[in-house]
């Protein structure tokens, strides 16, 4: 028996919603922008064996015990035993690593979500989506240093997700503009989430927090009331994270200038960076933007650029073999 699960890349914060807004992404080309995990039965040997493949597998730790799948398996097996009073079966887990680490596109969340959902699917889904989401958030938080659902929730559930974390509701989808193209570019360098957080102020001025709340509330309102121009005008961060993180990303200011001069709706940093995004409702403009980013922003062969739409599906079982 085997099962394969795909978890899409995601963009957290989306500028306007620091730590409380995120969206899953899918390239319009049909390419995979996310990780896949295969879980298959192993009759003999250790409880867990791990293999890695994919374009960014060489960036993963050589020691299997330092692989994210090791933590996922033992965490899930413990939860499974507590709920089912049964030992989890022996498995071989294969991670197809399609996202670079430290890219700002939810790389660790992708691996965690795909692995945990693969394990859940392998034993016929004993945990529901809310239980799984909480487990994914907790485990991803152990890796990144604190629990945040702005990558995990959209990666798992799809769409654009607003983090709530009240009344037993972790997140809920909000409407998005289906004609918007999200051009995302990873320059090929890495920025750790911890480093990107450490550069932020410990405290903010009252007027800055008021601006943040006003912009986020306005963006959510504009999304529900179908006002794309208003939503685009509010899709920005002048006070919370981007003014500080911009200095960590070579060429970011040039990206912002190009986006403004080309008539794009909005631009910003994806998650903690260094990936950037530019939004436009015109496919031809999206393709021109992609070409410009490939020429002026990407720094090495590890970098890439994709024209994306919001991924509505989120994580899904895709088959029985990679």
Observed structural traits:
322 residues, alpha+beta, Ribosomal Protein S5, domain 2, Alpha-Beta Plaits, 2 domains, 36% helix, globular, ATP-binding, GHMP_kinase_N_dom
Describe this structure as you would to a colleague:
With 322 residues, the protein is α+β, with helices and mostly antiparallel strands. The protein has two domains: 174 residues, Ribosomal Protein S5, domain 2 (2-Layer Sandwich), CATH 3.30.230; 130 residues, GHMP kinase, C-terminal domain (Alpha-Beta Plaits, 2-Layer Sandwich). 36% of the residues lie in helices and 24% in strands. Strands 2, 3, 7, 8, 9, 10, 11 and 12 form an eight-stranded antiparallel sheet that branches. A five-stranded mixed sheet has the order 5-6-4-1-13. The radius of gyration is 19 Å and the shape is globular. The two termini are 13 Å apart. The mean pLDDT is 94. It holds the Pfam family GHMP_kinases_C. It catalyses: L-homoserine + ATP = O-phospho-L-homoserine + ADP + H(+). Pathway: Amino-acid biosynthesis; L-threonine biosynthesis; L-threonine from L-aspartate: step 4/5.
């Amino acid at each position: 028996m085997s099962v394969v699960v795909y978890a899409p890349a995601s963009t957290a914060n989306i500028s306007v919603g620091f730590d409380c807004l995120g969206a899953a992404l899918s390239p319009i080309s049909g390419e995979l922008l996310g990780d896949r995990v295969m879980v298959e039965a192993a009759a003999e040997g250790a409880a867990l064996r791990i293999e890695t493949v994919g374009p960014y597998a060489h960036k993963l730790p050589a020691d299997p015990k330092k692989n994210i799948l090791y933590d996922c398996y033992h965490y899930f097996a413990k939860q499974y035993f507590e709920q089912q009073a049964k030992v989890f079966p022996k498995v071989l887990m294969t991670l197809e690593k399609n996202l670079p680490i430290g890219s700002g596109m939810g790389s660790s969340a992708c691996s965690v979500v795909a692995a945990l959902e693969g394990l859940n699917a392998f034993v016929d889904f004993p945990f529901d989506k809310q239980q799984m989401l909480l487990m994914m958030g907790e485990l991803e938080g152990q890796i990144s240093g604190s629990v945040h659902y702005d990558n995990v929730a959209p990666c798992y559930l799809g769409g654009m997700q607003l983090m709530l974390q009240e009344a037993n509701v972790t997140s809920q989808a909000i409407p998005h503009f289906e004609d918007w193209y999200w051009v995302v570019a990873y320059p090929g360098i890495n920025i750790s989430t911890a480093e990107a957080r450490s550069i932020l102020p410990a405290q903010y001025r009252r007027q800055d927090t008021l601006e943040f709340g006003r912009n986020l509330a306005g963006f959510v309102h504009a999304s529900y009331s179908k006002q794309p121009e208003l939503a685009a005008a509010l899709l920005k961060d002048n006070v919370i994270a981007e003014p500080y993180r911009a200095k960590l990303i070579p060429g970011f200011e040039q990206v912002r200038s190009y986006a403004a001069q080309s008539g794009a709706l909005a631009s910003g940093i994806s998650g903690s960076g260094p990936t950037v995004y530019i939004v436009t409702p015109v496919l031809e403009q999206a393709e021109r933007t992609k070409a410009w980013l490939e020429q002026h922003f990407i720094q090495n062969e590890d970098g890439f650029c994709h024209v994306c739409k919001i991924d509505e599906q989120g994580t899904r079982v895709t088959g029985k073999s990679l």
